[in-house]
Design brief:
The structure is a homodimer. In chain A, the strands form two sheets. In chain A, strands 1, 2, 3, 4, 5, 6, 7, 8, 9 and 10 form a ten-stranded mixed beta sheet that branches. A two-stranded antiparallel ribbon of chain A has the order 11-12. Chain A is an alpha+beta fold. The radius of gyration of chain A is 22 Å and the shape is globular. Helix content of chain A is about 20%, strand content about 40%. The first copy, chain A, folds into two domains: about 25-210, Nucleoside Triphosphate Pyrophosphohydrolase; about 215-284, Arc Repressor Mutant, subunit A, CATH 1.10.10.10. The interface between A and B is large, with 69 and 69 residues. The structure holds a DNA duplex.
DNA sequence: CTAATAGTGTCTGTTAGACACTATCTA
DNA sequence: TAGATAGTGTCTAACAGACACTATTAG
């Protein structure tokens, strides 16, 4: 490397003088949204915080990134530390939340990841170090009104007696969507920090891809009946859909395994996702 | 706040003891992808770096986030400092790049934003403090092969004699898309760090929304002819499209202003985007 | 008249929503 | 035979791709 900068320094000389301790730096964290489908319901994993800040609130599993640790490694490590879960079938970055005042400790910039797993992968979820308790919360988002201007929805997380409900307002502003949310009064618990925003984005992302990609199959076992797929689909999009049409369309991305499973008093054919379709439209 | 943690501390006590200097923190930066359409070509703003690292490479405008500055504020400030541009009509977060080894100075986590502006907003782009030179690069992405497995494309940035070209390989891996890229040998310059990944994501995002949303209109003047829209659309998606079909479909989201503009030896009607459609499908 | 641009019309195959229907098995 | 589940068929309106066509005006 021959190039020198305005001070006549080579890259090596420049780096030798470089000192990042001159400025105060934000802390970086990662959060994980882990979803699955249990008994036909869309579920989200939350942990109850046992320390400040947001003590006793429910939070997405996550934590600080080590200085020389890749972000993906960090989020997997934190998930394991807090919940003992190690396998996901789907994994992608969702959004980075970095408002200057979002954490009372210091400036915290959080990158949130979205992941999914079939329910049979998560038999033994335990609370780990930083979590008081973990819970698989049923996740429902119902759209109350929708027009050209925006949408008003209610997003509800429930687990046993715990009920966390937010009103979510999406409004079109100068070429982007502004989302505002507030805790609904019939809640008896709440989410930490701005985690509701991440959950809401995850639901919207999942919904927008549920019909046109194979994303749903990350939530389901390897071999599934058409009814299981449809139930999961309906849990995701939050409304019923026509059985005939759904079957007609979904079969295009399925392979019949030849196996059957007893369902009610009848046998249902078992299908698996045709990996031919895994690339399809999956790109943003 | 009465709640105390395991050490019996209130939130105030906890915060008083909290010391973020015990650990070394990553540095956080923001980068901006700013696009426009000039003479029917999709353009991207790049600045030539005048200091280490990546000296003399072309880079996205951006820089360090101040400790107590919102990320959006930071990216607007950096854009103004480096290019004197202050107005965008479209603005959203794109992705956060945080691999542990992506910058030789220290650990750097970069959040990249995508923005657009009509060409008439950017008459006087100047190189600012940290940039040697700025340039509006014509951006083209051509897909060479595409199948269920993935896509091979070439992404080319050119500005005058400068030609920066990358081969981009998208491959379906375990339910997500892995993108790899390498500098094409007929390039005579290159992009700094991993900026090609961000540019590639931006193109894909723009393409995926170009037909179904009004995103294109962020690149165009207020009043446009159908031909201008079609040309911009073709520049974005990288291939020609049928004029009759395009007009039939795009008119659904337009309002005829009644004005006309001379085009060739004929007058063309001027339309504007119907803001009724601004919310439509814009959510991820 | 030609070239360059704007702008329209029509055919056809595919897709998506609504809805009525049959099949199998247990109790 | 009732009830619960699986699974199919059909009509129709909307949409999308291919392509042939007309209109206006400077030079």
């Amino acid at each position: 490397m021959e190039d020198r900068n305005a001070k006549g320094e080579t890259l090596e000389e420049f780096l030798a003088k470089y000192d990042d301790s001159l400025y105060r730096h934000p802390s970086n964290t990662v959060d994980m949204i882990l979803m699955t489908v249990i008994e036909g319901k869309l579920k989200l994993l939350l942990v109850k915080r046992k320390d400040h800040p947001f003590i006793h609130d429910w939070a997405l599993p996550g934590g600080f990134i080590n200085f020389d640790e890749d972000m993906e490694t960090a989020v997997m490590r934190e998930l394991q530390e807090e919940t003992n879960i190690t396998d996901q079938t789907y994994f992608r970055q969702l959004y980075t939340f970095g408002n200057a005042d979002r954490d009372p400790r210091t400036r915290v910039i959080t990158t949130c990841y979205l992941s999914m797993t079939p329910a049979d992968n998560i038999r033994n979820t335990l609370a780990g170090d930083d979590a008081e308790e973990t819970g698989w919360f049923t996740l429902e988002k119902t759209t109350l009104t929708a027009d050209a201007d925006g949408r008003d929805s209610v997003l509800t997380l429930s687990c046993g007696d715990i009920r966390i409900s937010y009103s979510v307002f999406d409004r079109a502003k100068n070429n982007y969507i502004e989302t505002r949310s507030e805790l609904h009064p019939d809640s008896n618990a709440k989410l930490a920090a701005d985690h509701i925003k991440a959950v809401n984005m995850a639901v919207d992302l999942l919904r927008s891809r549920a019909a046109s990609t194979g994303i749903l199959f990350n939530l389901l076992p390897e071999e599934v009946t058409l009814r299981q797929i449809q139930t999961a689909y309906e849990a995701v999009i939050g409304r019923p859909t026509d059985t005939g049409n759904f079957r007609r369309d979904i079969k295009k991305m399925l392979i019949n395994t030849g196996h059957t499973a007893k369902a009610g008093n009848k046998y249902a054919a078992l299908y698996r996702f045709n990996p031919m379709y895994s690339y399809l439209k999956e790109n943003l």
